[in-house]
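Practice problem: predict the structure.
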Amino acid sequence: MSGHSKWATIKHKKSKADAARGRAFSKLIREITTAARIGGGDIEANPRLRSAVEAAKAINMPAENIERAIKRGTGELPGVTYEEIFYEGYAPGGVALLVRVLTDNKNRTTAEIRHVFDKYGGSMGAAGCVAWQFKPKGLIVIEKGKADEDTVLSVALEAGADDVQTDSAGYTVVTSVENFEGVKRQLKAAGIEWLNAELTQVATNTVPVSEADAPKVLKLIEMLEELEEVQQVYANFDIPDEVLERVSSAGS
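Answer:
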């Protein structure tokens, strides 16, 4: 988890840039469609769908695009059915990677992901090689300045959060999947705005990454995320905030 708020801030800025060229829209449309297919089209009754719609609104996706994606998922409109697959492997330095994909062509996607792992210094592993190191959680990232630490701690923990972690970028509220929406509601009621809120996979242990290896790890993750079918890349790296900042600035 170390550096997660900083990493979330960097990724949030990147997603806004991606939206300008449509990549983020495409990924979220896949997620909205799949969430609606699995859990139904009622946003209030489907936490996964609600999170996807909130993310879409955050990057200014038009409401009609969101509505169409939901209707494709529920079958009200014709559309593609995506299969959810997890790929596993390692980045340089022994960092575990869990790659979540929504695809309509498993063979093509498997070949593309293997190519990226090989090209950027990683190694793709067999199913189960790293998944045991991750647990499903809700994460809510709050920037410094949006609220003071004591308020975030008291509101989040009283609402049922598992933990609140603080770093130089802000606060990361960790919740169970079941309590995710309730914690969000309580934070909102307290007037606390968040930068990012998502259902994700959190590493149960972390691997320290040297400054020499950090650019290689982040480059592999970036190139995996460039693939249209890849929804998220989960990693167990421990990179200090200042290194993340330097590496990200150098790559921008």
